């Protein structure tokens, strides 16, 4: 195991790299949580992301490259989606400063691209990446096609994504995704990274199955800091979903399951491509007990979780270690999750939550109805979840595991 004094002394600066310097999803929350964790342990953390109007302020913003415009992309944006010279040049300017000891990548594709790997390798900086999805082996990141699990590409035959039109059913989008996947692989998306941190054992085994060298993969689940979150003894008031509002997140399955359960509200917090469609469905069917409350962060999100009966994770793709599960437990709320991907690694059935078959409206409805019928039992499940995150997903436990990875590369 890691030696705290040795590693801490050798590791002064960490370059933390991601697409966003604001919170859009779970990987962004991890990006900021890791920064706070490392800084709290005495390390200096340098962020490197793309420019965006929603970015939080930072002295390092002067090094951030201009973002790719995904809404109305120009020819230059399309090229930068595959290989961003802007990102490479911006990182080269940053690396002219004192050299970081290690680079820790999050989701960097699309905005920064594998163009950033060259400058890091030339500077002799070890590279670690936390994997939040399946981009290494799937051009559309999800191992899904038309809502169903798909491994046709087998981790390397990315042309099949074009034949299958995996990106939103579009030939042009799928061609762009496949091209980007081939270029990324050629530019070192796997070979150029020293160690990959998988956030679930399911993810690690899936990547090995699809051809990634097992020696490069280690499993470290995400963490949640509960030191400032009090144990929550109050009964909840509503069902809650928070996260991206996308089809692959099972949002329509959740709406169907909750439709007849009118005695307790369902709140849906977040933004995403499917929000307008989901809101239209709720309005058309007169489901006034289902309410969309927009994107919530920080204390506002914490209060929303703390007042819920339970949090629901109805995903229909191979989720890995969703932060929404750990954040729910942190606030003493139980979780009803789909039995898919890494979710079963986090939920102990009947102890701190319940599972249901992904996409099964009837089974999900049964679980929701059970929680509604016995709020005291729901509270007991949530308190068990709180004890679990204190024991198994703490900040100190996570720090030790990450330092163990770093130490082997320094």
Question: Which properties best describe this structure?
Answer:
Rossmann fold; 410 residues; 6-stranded parallel beta sheet; single chain
Tell me about this structure.
The chain has 410 residues and is of the alpha/beta class. The protein has 2 domains: 4-224 and 394-405, 3-Layer(aba) Sandwich (Rossmann fold); 239-392, Rossmann fold (3-Layer(aba) Sandwich), CATH 3.40.50.2000. It has helices spanning 4-10, 26-40, 75-82, 85-95, 117-122, 160-163, 171-186, 201-209, 251-258, 275-284, 298-306, 323-330, 361-373, 375-392, 395-407, and strands at residues 13-17, 44-48, 102-105, 127-131, 144-145, 148-149, 195-198, 217-219, 239-242, 266-269, 290-294, 310-313, 335-338, 353-356. The strands form 3 sheets. Strands 2-1-3-4-7-8 form a 6-stranded parallel sheet. The chain has a 6-stranded parallel sheet with strand order 11-10-9-12-13-14, sandwiched between helices. Strands 5-6 form a two-stranded antiparallel sheet. A hairpin with a 2-residue loop joins strand 5 (144-145) and strand 6 (148-149). Helix 9 (251-258) packs across helix 13 (361-373) and helix 12 (323-330) packs across helix 14. The longest helix has 18 residues, at 375-392.
Whole-number mean pLDDT: 94
Characterize the overall form. Answer: globular
N-to-C SSE string, H for helix and E for strand: HEHEHHEHEEEHHEHEEHEHEHEHEEHHH
Total domain units: 2
CATH topology of the largest domain: Rossmann fold
For the record, the CATH class of the largest domain is Alpha Beta
Radius of gyration: 21 Å
The largest β sheet comes out as: 6 strands, parallel
Strand order in the largest sheet: 2-1-3-4-7-8
Strand content: 5-15%
- Record field, number of beta strands: 14
**Total of helices:** 15
